[in-house]
Amino acid sequence: MEAVLTRHIEANAPLDLEAYRSVGGYRSLDAAFARKPEEIIEIVEAANLRGRGGAGFSCGLKWRLRDADAPRPRYLVCNIDESEPGTFKDRYLLYGGPHQIIEAVIVSAYALQAEKAVIFVRGEYGKGGHGLHRAIKEAEMAGLVGSNICGSGFDLQMEVHISGGRYICGEETAMLNAIEGLRPNPRHKMPRPSVKGLWQHPTTTNNVETLVNVPHILLNGADWFRALGINSGCGPKLFCVSGMVHQPGLFELPCGTPARELIFEHAGGLAEGRTLLGFIPGGASTAFLLPEHLDVPMDFDPVAKAGSRLGTASIIVLDDTTCPVQVTLNLMRFFARESCGFCTPCRDGIPYLAQILATIASGEGRAEDLVLLEELSGIIALQSFCAFAPGAMIPLISSLQCFHDHYESHIDTGCCPFDAVNKSGA
Amino acid sequence: MGTMRIDGHDIPFQENDNILKAALAANIEIPYFCYHAALGSLGACRLCAVEVASVDPTQSPRVVMSCLEFARDGLNVSVSAAAARQVRQRVIEFLMINHPHDCPVCDEGGECHLQEMTVACGPPYRRYRGRKRTFTNQYLGPLVHHEMNRCITCYRCTRFYQDYALGDDLGSMRLRNEVYFGRFQDGPLTSPFAGNLVEICPTGVFTDAVFRQHFARVWDLETAPSICPHCSVGCNTLPGARDGTLRRMRNRFHPELNRWFICDRGRYGHQYSEHIDRPLTPRVRDEKVSYREALAAAAEQIKAARDKTSGLGSTREDLESNAMLQTLLNKLSGRFATFSDPQIETATVAAVAALQSSGGAPSLAEIEQADAALVVGDLTAHAPMMDLALRQAYRAGAKLAILHSGPSLLARFAATTLTVPPQEISAHLLRLHEQATAAPTAPTAPAPSNKHEKELADIAVYLTAAQRPVLIGVSETMAVPEIAAMVQLATALGSRAKLAYALPGANTYGTILLTPTTSTTAMLEAIESGQIQTLIVIGNDPLGDARLGTRWRAARRHLSTLIVLDCVATATAEAADILLPVAAWAERGGTFVNYEGRAQGFAPVFQRTEPLPNTVEVLADLAHCLELALPDAAAVLSNLFPGYQAPLPGTLGSALSAPPLTMQTGTTIGPASSAHPGHWQVALASWYGDDPLASYAPALMELAPAAAALIHPTAAFKEGIEDKKQVRLRGPAGTVVLPVQLNNDVAAGTIALSRVTLTQLGVGHGDLLELEHIS
User: Fold this and answer.
1) Does B673 score more than 60 pLDDT?
2) In the CATH scheme, what is the code of domain A324-425?
3) May I ask the CATH class of domain A17-227?
4) Which residues pair with A79 in a beta bridge?
5) Percentage of residues of chain B with pLDDT beyond 90
6) N- or C-end of chain A: fewer Cβ atoms within 10 A?
7) For residue A348, which residues of chain B lie inside 8 Å, CB to CB?
8) Which fold has domain B346-506?
9) B226 vs A375, B252, B388, B602, B691, CA distance in Å?
10) Is A362 on the interface with B (CB under 8 A)?
11) CB-closest option in B68, B90, B176 to A347
């Protein structure tokens, strides 16, 4: 497949406005303004563009959740608070092609008839955020952002908000609080942000990768977009592969490309003599998949059918020298550290799990600890306030299922078996 | 509105009630931490889990948080379901991971919500084998003690402190299991409502630092329903005493008044009754004597003076004591008054007359519902809980207007703030009335400086547009014209407008009902002309009066005998010929009539190890020595107020039936002529801890602002006065040297001074003063 989203991405020297226009940038504005906003939503819906932020919710449907006659002002928030372990796709888009993002935000805001767009950038992506800010200023000077864009009568203000830098800020309502200058605790979802979001005004939030597809869909049509995918997937998809592979990296491939092709062809496969233990398909908060799932197409529904989630399509590979208990402990420590501290199960439950896992990983676990892990993770997943803790429980619960023998051997032998393997190997 | 079922019981609910609220209202226990009736639902603690049966019988029931789920008709809820119980148990287990096991020595022990919930829902044994997280505590000032390790992160403290009371120096910091509730750095909490943290915290993070100094286990405390003695609001309280000493104060719920909270003066002011200098032994001249001896000496002097005996009651003394003194004086044909400053007396009579004629003052709950309010004066210091009620109105979107001369904590929430010298308040009110009635006739009053026309017009617009406007005046810093102008404005706004005054004592309304005509000036003049030989003072401090202290001290020389009954060592008590120490309010029962005219009874809470008689008993004993037949207080009061029945402590209180007062005329505040070039108008820079009783509470007084002369920067610049430079102030009573403090909340040409400084100088609010530079 010819690169679509990454075609004009220059990681070290992003195209400025002139250069971006010379390769066809901002052409979708004309295509957008020539249509009624409602028509754009219909096209996006027909393209079956699904959210690239992790949940895979239909973009067109999400846009419809905000009433067409919702009171003004209305907001569009573009989420670049990419903090999921293993995920670095939005960073590529941000650092390598700010104008593509601006173009996408303009046409999406037009479709939503939103007059203000906030682009929320991960704190650690500060440099990229500043680059984006400069690009917005460039676009403003050229009349692409601001009042009466290109004589269309459509007004849009656009702002970059660089996050204070926490994982939870990527959660939709925590992000709204963060933008408002409040503590980034998630909000109660009733009423929904599409009704009462930023400053209690109707707000739509999309991941940046989702939005950058929109200009291409507008220019080339829904059928073109659907045809780009394979194995039931639609459109291009940015895949990240990391972990125990030769060439970790970012790959733009048809949505639906099987994991085997990603790991063994594009990422160069495993080291000599190693075998695959398993992989996480969609970032830290998705369930482990095993070698038997290598041919599952990396698309939302097939991965879900295999018992995991496509998430951010960020594969983390474990080979036979990787201790899955350590991997899980590492993930739990990450989630314990990133909990916003709002609700009890997440704030105090996840560190509890991490403590139990640490005991098991170091060989000091007890048989009843496994029962305890199952019991507690079930409660935490079901009874927390937002989606953070349920997401955090997914890799733990699946790790306990997929790698049960490894947990037992840690407890039975009183040590980490991988320590011995790795030492003898070295 | 509807009915749902909880564990087989049919429970009614109101529209927009969540399950938890409806259940609690029906006395069904659902455990919870972060929910609070005043703060609403949050959904953070996850303890209030209940099981809700699905409407579709094929679907299995769900566990939901009862604080976040609306009650619906026909909803079938189970608190006792195993799934819900398991969630609650795990929540407690999570919370107890880091909570220290210091319950046996914890201040909160015995009234700890976490302890109760742990016993009620938690697992009996601990499974966590890791280390506990620990925090460093902060110094939060003399009133509230901080112990962060006990925190269960329910966010109640910040929701009260920041969201409800609108404070800004306590917040939540950091994240994960290290969320920290405290200040940016160590230091005293600045909110006048900070003490409520002690009660709002469900465990022992914030505890009462004063109670801690002289601690008792809460189950050992003697308690009885009481009324706060520190201002005219009449908040309901629950004092706690042990071993003959008063240890602490808690809020007691009154649905129309203070509800869940009290101010810090109410919580910590009680220390006056344990003050080290509190008079405990009767004294005749300089000799300590027995009660009987003191009584006999007093009776002898009164017999000698006969009708040349007079009595001065007090607005901080209860209805019974004042009524008994008045009755005694009637028997002796002597005079009776209750104020030491005639100007404040006149204003207060006018205020009570205005309240009676305006159809009654709004309760605090009604003030909270206001959609626009005008405040005249510094409400925070004179009636802190009225301020808190207005903050609730502000949070709900009400427009506040403040007309004041000196600093006011409420001003930062005001849509319009008018800072004007004391003597110009009245003209501003009259102009506001004209604006509100939209009668563009020639101004009847001297037109206020034109620069305020726009602000007055703004205020007039939102007061007239409001559905529930409230006007509140601070009577101590007003005179009759100001009070009358507010009445006029209220009348113009129509019956939807409510009028209230913060009065200068817990029982001011009650004493005014006893002495509906002003009598202080006559009494003072009678003393000065030698017509009075013996003066009986109960709970009052005329010799320490800010404006008239000098005159009273001079008049005192005409008295042959000054008999004082009090529980604090005032200047008057110090100067007494015969001092009869009496029980403080928590040591006796009585009745206070609050600013609404609501008579509320308070019960005796405890007895001192060596009990002191109360004022009523002393007066009865005195009458006995004088061989006068004095009826008991109940009889006296039912004689004065038809159908009087003493309001029972712990009830909501009731209005007294009394004939309406008439508003007298009077001049505006300050001296008659206003043209005194080179003079500054004095404004009272009041502080919520400076009432006559709380001034004896050591912990609270640690927070008293340092004495300074507060001047507006522009005015200071014009006069060449610099910040922090010393200036000399000369008043009738003395000279004071103070540093200047520039303050934007002080009116032009006005110098704002603390109550203590006013007393040292012998001037009152609105008086004139000369200021001297010290080079």
Assistant:
1) no
2) 1.20.1440.230
3) alpha beta
4) A120, A207
5) 86
6) C
7) 94-95, 97-98, 177
8) Dimethylsulfoxide Reductase; domain 2 (3.40.228)
9) 49, 8, 21, 4, 19
10) no
11) B176
Q: Where are the domains of chain B?
A: 2-95, 130-274, 283-338+515-655, 346-506, 679-773
Mean pLDDT of chain B: 93
Kindly state the tokens that stand for B463: 């007061």
Residue B442 pLDDT: 47
Check residue B643 and give its pLDDT: 87
Better-predicted residue by pLDDT, B474 or B452 = B474
Q: Measured between alpha carbons, how far is A250 from A240 in angstroms, rounded to an integer?
A: 5
Alpha-carbon distance B735 to nearest alpha carbon in chain A (angstroms): 50
Interface test with A, best of B177, B180, B203 (most A CBs within 10 A): B177
Q: What's the CATH class of domain B2-95? A: alpha beta
Q: Does B44 touch chain A (CB under 8 A)?
A: yes
Architecture in CATH for domain B283-338+515-655: 3-Layer(aba) Sandwich (3.40)
Q: Give the mutation candidate from B62, B176, B203 for the A interface (greatest A CB count, under 10 A).
A: B176
Q: Which position has the token pair 């712990």?
A: B650
Distance from CA of B67 to the nearest CA of A (A): 12
Query: Is residue B441's pLDDT more than 60?
Result: no
The answer to whether the CB of B771 falls within 8 A of the CB of B751 is: yes
Q: What is the pLDDT of residue B532?
A: 95
Q: Where are the domains of chain A?
A: 17-227, 236-319, 324-425
Find all residues with CB under 8 Å of B359, minimum gap 6, and list them: B495
Residue B210 has pLDDT above 90, yes or no: yes
Contact pairs from chain A to chain B, CB under 8 Å: 82
Q: Which residues 6+ apart lie within 8 Å of A38 measured at CB?
A: A68
Contacts of A343 in chain B (CB under 8 A): 43-46
In angstroms, the separation between the Cα of residue A148 and the nearest Cα of chain B is 35
Is residue B626 within 8 A of residue B534, CB to CB? The reply is: no
Q: Per the CB < 8 Å rule, is A343 touching B175?
A: no
Residue B64 touches partner A, C-beta closer than 8 Å? no
Closest CA of chain B from A27, distance in Å:
44
Beta strands in B278-427 (DSSP E): 283-284, 287-288, 309-312, 336-337, 372-376, 399-404, 416-419
In the CATH scheme, what architecture does the domain A236-319 have? Roll (3.10)
Q: What is the pLDDT along chain A (426 residues), one digit of tens a residue?
A: 889 999 999 988 999 999 999 999 999 999 999 999 999 999 999 999 999 999 999 999 999 999 999 999 999 999 999 999 999 999 999 999 999 999 999 999 999 999 999 999 999 999 999 999 999 999 999 999 999 999 999 999 999 999 998 999 999 999 999 999 999 999 998 889 999 999 999 999 999 999 999 999 999 999 999 999 999 899 999 999 999 999 999 999 999 999 999 999 999 999 999 999 999 999 999 999 999 999 999 999 999 999 999 999 999 999 999 999 999 999 999 999 999 999 999 999 999 999 999 999 999 999 999 999 999 999 999 999 999 999 999 999 999 999 999 999 999 999 998 887 666 654
CB contact under 8 A, A344 and B172: no
Cis peptide upstream of residue B739 (ω within 30 degrees of 0): no
Q: Which residues pair with residue A252 across a beta bridge?
A: A238
Residue from the list B45, B130, B177 with its beta carbon closest to the beta carbon of A341: B177
Task: Just give the CATH number of B679-773.
Answer: 2.40.40.20
| Residue of A66, A64, A94, A68 whose CA lies nearest to A79 | A94
CB-CB neighbors (< 8 A) of B45 in chain A: 343-344
Q: Is B121 on the interface with A (CB under 8 A)?
A: no
Does the CB of B569 have a partner CB in chain A at under 8 Å? no
